[in-house]
Amino acid sequence: MVCAVPHALVSPASNYERWYEHFLRNRQTGSPLPWDDSCQLSTAERALVARSIQQFQLGEWANGRGLRQRASSNPCFAADRFFQAALDLFIQEEQGHSALLGRFLDREQIPRLKDDPIDHVFRRLRKMAGLEACVTVLVTAEMLALPFYRALRDATRSNLLRCICLQVLRDEAHHLKYQALTLRLLQRPISAGGRAIRLVLHSALFDGTALILWRQHRAVFRAAGWNFHRFWREAHRGFARLQRMIFAEFASPAL
User: Fold this and answer.
1) Kindly report the CA angle at 28 between 253 and 65, in degrees rounded to 5?
2) Which CATH class is domain 42-247?
3) Crossing angle between the packed helical segments 83-107 and 17-28, to the nearest 10 degrees
4) Is 44 exposed, middle or buried (0-12, 13-18, 19+ CB in 10 A)?
5) Contacts of 58 (CB under 8 A, 6+ apart)
6) How confident is the model at residue 4 (pLDDT cuts 50, 70, 90)?
7) Which of left, alpha, beta for 136 (phi over 0: left; psi -120 to 50: alpha)?
8) Alpha-carbon dihedral sign for residues 203, 208, 209, 214
9) What's the rounded Cα separation, in Å, for the pair 62 and 197?
10) Which pTM does this prediction carry?
11) Displacement of CA 70 from its chain's centroid (Å)
12) What pLDDT, on the 0 to 100 scale, is given for residue 252?
């Protein structure tokens, strides 16, 4: 369900109007995927990627209730009438990724996971955290999803899986910009020292999560020709890009 925005009530200084329009446009103009492709995973490919796709399918799904509640009461966003509508569309886009992966699992007759220990930990962290920490956890997962989906794209001969990965990668690249804006607004009133402490803490969270990701999904990376050094380098390039976006001079983001 799309959250409509009454234009007569909207402040002209909205930081999220362009994001609302972007998510709405992306929802309406998505490219069709080759679901009729007869090629399925081989036995070896299925053994290689099944668990990883199961875990990411579960991790991509969230109802976003806690995030909505925290954001709705935050003074950074209360006056921006496009914020909630854009957030709703963002959450729906993430749920759409989960639906795509779920449909692929069903097609390949791979059961969906109902629970996973790592996913459980991250969900608990988000529930316990305030808005800024919650967004930081989410964006950490988004950053590390990028190298994973690039590897998954090349790990099998499935054209359908490749197209799914390409669509998710396009969406996630925009998600990082969207979440960087949110973190920038949240950190704008904070002193330079406070932002430096946040950077150190985020870096520690990122490194720990990256090591877990590699440990759990290294077979997929290796099948795509990635070694640990390449994974670590690409992951940290993404982290550096995100920090540049967060600490950039405040301005409406270019999509």
Assistant:
1) 70
2) mainly alpha
3) 30
4) exposed
5) 98, 112, 113, 114, 115, 116, 119
6) low
7) alpha
8) positive
9) 29
10) 0.88
11) 19
12) 47
